Every structure is written in C-alpha cells, then in structure tokens.
C-alpha cells in the first residue's frame, strides 16, 4: 500500500513538473542546494576525525549499488 501511494505521488509530481517546469525548478533548487551543502558539511566534519580523510577516499571509491 505504501509503495503504491509513493508511486502515485511521484506520478503526480512528474505531471506537475511537465505542466509548470519553471515553478518546479524554483521549488526544487533550494532543496537540491541544501542537500549538496549538507553533504559538504558532512565531509568537512568527517575529515577532521581520526582517519576521516581515508574514510572519505573509501566512500568516493566505493561502487554504487
């Protein structure tokens, strides 16, 4: 049930984006920028920990999936 609800929401959002892409971009851009900023802050904090720089290298080299 939750999966169907999620897919319904995704389909709704895709249709909304097709109908008014500029408005969607205005809504999504701050969210995406915040995600990137949070990731950068995480890496900065991790780099300050013991073996942090090594962990970052391992994360960046790890295959996705």
Tell me the layout of helices and strands.
Blueprint: H1 2-19, H2 21-47, H3 52-61
Helix pairs in contact: 1-2, 2-3
Protein model, in words:
There is one protein chain. The chain has 65 residues and is mainly α. It contains 3 helices and no strands.
Structure keywords:
65 residues, mainly alpha, elongated
The residue ranges in which pLDDT falls below 50 over 5 or more consecutive positions are none
The average pLDDT score comes to: 90
The rounded distance between the terminal residues' Cα atoms is 25 Å
Based on secondary structure, the structural category is mainly alpha
Query: What fraction of residues sit in β-strands?
Result: under 5%
DSSP helix count? 3
DSSP helix fraction: over 70%
- String of helices and strands: HHH
Describe the largest sheet. none
Strands, count: 0
| CA-atom Rg in angstroms | 18 Å
Shape: elongated
